[in-house]
């Protein structure tokens, strides 16, 4: 009560009551979800127990817009709560969002790196098996979803060791390089180059050579011109990265 007056907190917590959504405002739960990180920050992690049940209620709300709002801010809430509370209370919610509608999944995808970097290495490694699921969307024409995945993977590379990158992320990168949408392919070429840089920066030369050979077989000797063009673009991006690295610029 020395932080937020109890009546004010009670009023906020009551906003998740389905009866209020029907009689007062159908958007009230969404407004509550939008404000929750701010309320959590004000209360502090020591008072998270006051909001936990409300958060879980909102995370299972029948309106996807409510769940989407929480998905976009779950990484911010993780920073507020710290690693222990995040692992105990947010990871289960996060896992549920991963299996939700694309409109909700995009929220966690846009900040996937921000959330994963807050987890312990062993917990973070569990998500290597699930990253492949982001390639599949409810609507195959939703190419921006796959574009966002490639962008996030470029950042996520630093969170995993070369062997994990080779065993899991490499397959996703190759799939995205063959996407039907050129914008997705182009960002994926940057991902491929970033993977190669990861290998050689960590002295995983054998993995890098194997990956290069795979790129040659898959794209350089492809029977379709799109595949051969992809190989040329990968070489172009790789050369630009090499030049910029030595001259202190960035691609």
State the helix count.
Answer: 13
Give the helix proportion (percent range): over 70%
Tertiary shape: elongated
Assign the CATH class of the largest domain. Mainly Alpha
Question: What order do the SSEs take from the amino end to the carboxyl end, as H and E?
Answer: HHHHHHHHHHHHH
CATH architecture of the largest domain: Alpha Horseshoe
Q: If you compute it from the alpha carbons, what radius of gyration comes out, rounded to the nearest whole angstrom?
A: 22 Å
Explain this structure to me?
The protein is elongated. The chain is mainly alpha-helical and 251 residues long. The protein has helices at residues 6-13, 18-23, 28-43, 49-59, 64-98, 102-110, 112-116, 121-125, 143-156, 162-177, 182-201, 205-220, 225-247. The chain has 2 domains: 1-119, Alpha Horseshoe (Leucine-rich Repeat Variant); 135-250, no CATH class. The protein is 73% helix and 0% strand. The model is unreliable at 240-251 (pLDDT under 50). The chain contains 13 helices and no strands.
Topology (elements, then pairings):
Blueprint: H1 6-13, H2 18-23, H3 28-43, H4 49-59, H5 64-98, H6 102-110, H7 112-116, H8 121-125, H9 143-156, H10 162-177, H11 182-201, H12 205-220, H13 225-247
């Amino acid at each position: 009560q020395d932080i937020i007056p109890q009546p004010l907190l009670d009023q906020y917590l009551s906003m998740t009551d389905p009866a209020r959504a029907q009689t007062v405002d159908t958007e009230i739960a969404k407004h509550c979800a939008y404000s929750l990180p701010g309320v959590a920050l004000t209360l502090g992690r020591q008072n998270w127990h006051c909001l936990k049940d409300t958060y879980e209620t909102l995370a299972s709300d029948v309106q996807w817009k409510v769940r989407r709002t929480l998905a976009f801010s779950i990484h911010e809430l993780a920073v507020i709560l710290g690693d222990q509370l995040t692992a105990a209370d947010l990871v289960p919610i996060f896992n549920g969002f991963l299996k939700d509608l694309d409109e909700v999944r995009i929220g966690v995808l846009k900040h996937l790196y921000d959330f994963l970097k807050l987890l312990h290495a062993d917990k973070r490694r569990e998500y290597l098996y699930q990253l492949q699921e982001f390639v599949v969307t409810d609507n195959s024409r939703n190419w921006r979803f796959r574009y966002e995945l490639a962008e996030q993977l470029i950042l996520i590379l630093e969170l995993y060791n070369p062997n994990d990158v080779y065993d899991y992320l490499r397959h996703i990168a190759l799939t995205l390089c063959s996407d039907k949408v050129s914008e997705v392919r182009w960002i994926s070429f940057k991902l491929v180059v970033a993977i190669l840089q990861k290998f050689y920066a960590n002295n995983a030369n054998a993995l890098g050579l194997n990956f290069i050979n795979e790129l040659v077989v898959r794209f350089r000797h492809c029977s379709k011109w799109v595949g051969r063009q992809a190989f040329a673009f990968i070489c172009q991006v790789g050369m630009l990265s090499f030049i910029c690295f030595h001259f202190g610029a960035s691609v």
